[in-house]
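In this section we turn from sequence analysis to structure. A common task in structural bioinformatics is to predict how a protein folds when a small molecule is present, because the ligand can shape the pocket around it. The inputs are simple: the amino acid sequence and a SMILES string for the ligand, here S-adenosylmethionine. Study the lines below before reading on.
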Amino acid sequence: MFFGHGTNNAWDESAALVLHALALDHDDPTVYGRRVGRGDQQRVRALLARRIEERIPAVYLTGRTWFAGLPFEVDPRVLIPRSPIAELIERRFAPWLAARRIHRVLDMGTGSGCIAIACARALPWARVDAADISVAALEVAARNVRRHRLAGRVRLVRSDHFAALGAERYDLIVSNPPYVGARELAALPPEYRHEPALALASGRAGLDSVHVLLAQARRHLRPGGALIVEVGNTERAVRRAYPRLPFVWLQFERGGGGVFLLAAADLPSPRARRAGA
Ligand SMILES: C[S@@+](CC[C@H](N)C(=O)[O-])C[C@H]1O[C@@H](n2cnc3c(N)ncnc32)[C@H](O)[C@@H]1O
C-alpha cells in the first residue's frame, strides 16, 4: 500500500473510509463507541477491500478532500489536491508577496480548481483565471467553483498552457503543472495509475510543462508580478536546465518542497533562448 494522496498513513485513510461508509461525520463527538450493525460492517469491508485490492486512493473512494482548509469534490478526472502551495495561500503568500497588490491571479493547470479557489478565498478582492487543457478536469473544477459560490470571481478557461489566454496579464501566476518524467512515471506505485496521466506526465525528463511556463509567463505578468511553480523532485533538473535564473526555493512548515518563485523581471524575456536563460 502507498499513502501519499492527502494522507501519509493507513490510520487516517482507514478512519476516512470507515466514517464515509457509515455516513458519519469526523467532527461528531457521538461517533466513537457506537455499535456497528452487520450491514454497515459489510459496507466498511467492501470499501476497505477496494482500497487494498484495487489500490484506489481513499480520496477517490470518498469523493472529497480538503485543501488550504477548504472542502473539495474530487474524482479520477483530477489529481488529488496535495500541493504544498496550500500553505503559501493560507499565509496569503507572506512574506514573499504583498497580498493587497494581487488583483489578478492565474492558476495554470487547475485540475479540481483547488489552487484557484483557495486563492480567491484568501484574496477576496482578486479575480482568478483557472486554466486547464482537460475538459474533464474543468467539469470537476466547475462543481467546486459552484460549491464555493465563486463563479463571479473564478473564470474557468480551457487552454493549452497560455494559448487561449490572449493578452491577459496577471499579478500572480501560480501553477502545479505535471512534472513526472517517463521513467519515474513507470515506477510509481499503483495508486498513481488512478490519477489522470495528463496531470502527472510531462515528457521524458518531466520538464516539458515547466519549460513552457518559464518561456511564456513573463508575457502574461504585470510589472512587479511573480510566478510560483511546484516542480517537486525535478528541482535539481530545473536548476541544472536554468543555471542563470535566480530561483527562490520556498520553505514549508508543513513539509514538501520543490516550489520556486521568480519575479516577472527575472523571467526570460519572450525572445530569449532557453539554454541558461
Ligand atoms: C499536477 S495537476 C495539478 C492540479 C491542481 N492544480 C492541483 O494542484 O491539485 C496538473 C494539471 O495540469 C493540467 N495540464 C496538463 N497539461 C496541460 C497543458 N498543456 N495546459 C494546461 N493544463 C495542463 C492537467 O490536466 C492537470 O489538471
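Strands lie at 64-67, 70-73, 104-108, 127-132, 154-158, 170-175, 221-230, 248-249, 259-263. As an exercise, try to locate the residues that line the S-adenosylmethionine site and compare them with your own expectations.
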